[in-house]
Design a protein that fits this description.
five-stranded antiparallel beta sheet; Arc Repressor Mutant, subunit A; BirA Bifunctional Protein, domain 2; disordered N terminus; binds biotin; globular; 368 residues; SH3 type barrels; single chain; binds adenosine-5'-triphosphate; alpha+beta; disordered C terminus
């Protein structure tokens, strides 16, 4: 597999050189990736065999193994046996993601790329927005500076989770985008349903939780004129199989799909499904806005009816969450009034802090 990877790169010199010039890959990273594709089977491979496969010395193999470890890849090295991955991994493949796209998404998609490592897929698409043909999808195996809202960090270890950004161009201007963050949450819920997860919850405006623990989030960034064309980068991070040791760096309860489903879902299949659901949802959203998705969002609202604290730049206020309005704004009952919050830099927390028993999927009638 390793040499085949190198041949594929060598057989398409322009692409490889272009990628190299664009700073996407270094020679060391290409060899490191070829090494990874050999190790992906989870079996032991001796340094000698790896060196022969890559056409490099054993010392070269050792150097690349250290490089992979520095990228967050867990490798067991056992004297007399060789090297193997801490756990078998399924690397993302552009072809496999494409083969999982719905017909509509396949026709509509303007481009798709998979990076081994990048600072942030959102940052990448923002840098190149004017030169790309939307909808354009950018996946990465790892992010060195993955971002959440308000400058917070998104932990993005190698080949464990999904990191996707999708560039979309809206003609109607930023005002038509209200509720977009919530609509993306619905597209993720639909993706999860296709792998059997029906009890995920939504926390306004951008988080997905399961039994009180966060496993996915979205970051939407836009640029453009106040009326007219508007480039939107929709970033989605979903934990598929987060290493326990790394999760210690996350300062809130977290989980992943492996824990939720009891198995490790195929990341390529999940990537194709997520991209399809996003494209289909966005094609509808640009025509009809958030309204048709409102009830679906409400059915998964884990904060509804709970005492909450809402933090804004002006400070924190408490009240009872009354869900969302038709535009996707958060409604909070504070004494005799109901206050309306637009997403921006607003942060919502349950006042008792424990969402592990928060219901989701409750009927909308119960909320009327
Ligand atoms: P809110 O969205 O309500 O403002 P938040 O704390 O979830 O609150 P976000 O900006 O949405 O803030 O998400 C970033 C936060 O998510 C980080 O500060 C960290 O607590 C958590 N986090 C970072 N990486 C991951 C990850 N891979 N999985 C789960 N949670 C993560
Ligand atoms: C959040 O919960 O605050 C949002 C997390 C969004 C993470 C995704 S991963 C792909 C994309 N690239 C980024 O840097 N962030 C988003």
């Amino acid at each position: 597999m390793g040499p085949a990877f190198l041949v594929a790169i060598a057989g398409r010199p322009n692409r490889a050189v272009a990628a190299f010039n664009a700073g996407c890959y270094t020679i060391a990273m290409l060899q490191g990736n070829a090494l990874l594709s050999i190790l992906a089977d989870g079996e032991f491979h001796s340094g000698e065999v790896l060196g022969q496969a890559l056409g490099i010395s054993r010392a070269g193999v050792w150097k690349h193994l250290q490089g992979l470890k520095a990228r967050g890849v867990e490798i067991d090295s056992v004297p007399g046996k060789g090297h193997r991955l801490g756990a078998p991994i399924e690397l993302l493949s552009e072809a496999r993601i494409r083969s999982g796209l719905s017909e509509m998404a396949r026709v509509r998609l303007g481009g798709l790329e998979v990076h081994q490592q990048i600072d942030s897929t959102n940052s990448e698409l923002r840098r190149r927005a004017s030169t790309l043909s939307p909808p354009f999808a950018c996946f990465a195996e790892s992010q060195s500076a993955g971002r959440g809202r308000s400058g917070r960090a998104w932990l993005s270890p190698f080949a464990r989770n999904l990191y996707l950004s999708l560039l979309w161009r809206f003609d109607a201007g930023p005002d038509a985008l209200s509720g977009l963050s919530l609509a993306v949450g619905v597209a993720i819920l639909r993706t999860l349903r296709r792998i059997g997860v029906t009890d995920a919850g939504l926390k306004w405006p951008n988080d997905l939780l399961w039994r009180g623990a966060k496993f996915a989030g979205t970051l939407i960034e836009m640029s453009g004129e106040s009326c007219g064309n508007c480039n939107v980068v929709i970033g989605v991070g979903i934990n598929v199989r987060m290493p326990q040791a790394l999760g210690g760096a996350i300062d809130q309860a977290w989980t992943d799909l492996a824990t939720i489903t009891g198995t490790t879902p195929s990341r390529n299949r999940l990537a194709g499904t997520l991209l399809s659901e996003l494209i289909e949802m966005l094609a509808g959203f640009e025509k009809t806005g958030f309204a048709p998705l409102l009830e679906e969002w409400r059915r998964h609202d884990i904060m509804f009816g709970r005492p909450v604290t809402v933090s804004t730049v002006h400070g924190a206020e408490g009240g009872i969450s009354r869900g969302i309005d038709a535009g996707g704004a958060l409604l909070v009952e504070e004494g005799a009034i109901i206050k309306r919050y637009l997403s921006g830099d607003v942060s919502l927390r349950a006042r008792d802090g424990d969402l592990s028993s928060a219901p989701c999927g409750a009927s909308t009638e119960a909320r009327a």
